[in-house]
Amino acid sequence: MTEQSLFSAFTAGDIALKNRVVMAPLTRNRARPEDDTPHGLHVDYYTQRAGAGLIITEATQISPEGKGYAWTPGIYSDVQVAGWKKVTESVHKAGGRIVLQLWHVGRVSHTSLQEGGKAPVAPSAIGAGAKTFDGEKMLETSEPRALELDEIPRIIEDFRKAAVNARRAGFDGVELHAANGYLLDQFMKDGANKRDDAYGGSLDNRTRLTFEALDAVLQEWEPGRVGIRISPFSNANNITESDPAALALHVVDRLAGYDLAYIHLIEGQTGGKREWPESVDMDDLKARSGTPWMVNNGYDRAMALAAVADDHADLVAFGVPFIANPDLVARLKLDAPLNQADSSTFYGGGAKGYTDYPTLDEAQKKAG
Ligand SMILES: Cc1cc2nc3c(=O)[nH]c(=O)nc-3n(C[C@H](O)[C@H](O)[C@H](O)COP(=O)(O)O)c2cc1C
Q: Can you give the pTM of this predicted structure?
């Protein structure tokens, strides 16, 4: 691998990518409020970013129960499928590839965001003590109730149905969101999972829901079109785990048998420190996975070039830099300056801070 390999083509399972720069999943809370549907703004936003080798959409709830914030999109209704179809068609026309991130928030929700004001669901009745947004203000997540054993098949079925809908909407594949303290991560980590049935206790039990959800998705998609995102070392949304190294090893070893499109690892604290237990050898994890390996968290140009050149990763996902730079790949190629992201427009609002960041050409023209 050479320094410029970041910009070379790569085939992730069955998905042919023109380069190895990936747009990380980014929640932006701009779906149509009445039906949690993506619309024209989303078409523009994602199409502007079609220069990425792969776009991973913002996290998208698989069911009304899977929702934890105002104005996030869903993939459980026909109108949502139609909204996403416009996005995928436009991204494809612009030469891009796009997969949908499948999401259930579990306990990271609020009763006001749940149908009938119900309590959010979780592995155990332990509150996240995290923050969410109800459309007007930030507020603390509600106390969840523990899922009954006989409800779990319903959740797995919701993942399967969402996978069917993603196919109908024209996506190139799906990414299972098993990271950042949401439902699947809540089951995997022992700070949130105190169950004493087949879904709690041992690593096999705690990871069971993730693998059952994955198997359900694989009923609808060939493995080469399915990726998974994990964050074993992250405390995002106040999740805790007593032995993250063992969890990481367990999950990666089991995923090795699946022949997936990719494994997407958040290295360290999501959006924070690139820190993990000393016993973890990241390159060993990649090697034993035998799967296209996508890394994320705090990457800049130099780090990304080196990661691919040194075979630390096959793909590098950028989050915040893609918010502010629709033409991020072109800028990285040229080593051009990057626009800085405005965090006040990350969540909610309209075109401002969403589709109005200039490309390099536009910025240069404006500068005259
Ligand atoms: C505004 C914002 C929204 C995010 N939404 C999601 C999301 O929907 N799904 C997800 O897995 N991660 C989400 N993340 C985490 C990012 O994908 C990424 O892991 C994080 O920003 C670190 O990467 P970066 O340093 O390249 O930005 C979000 C981060 C930000 C800043």
A: 0.98
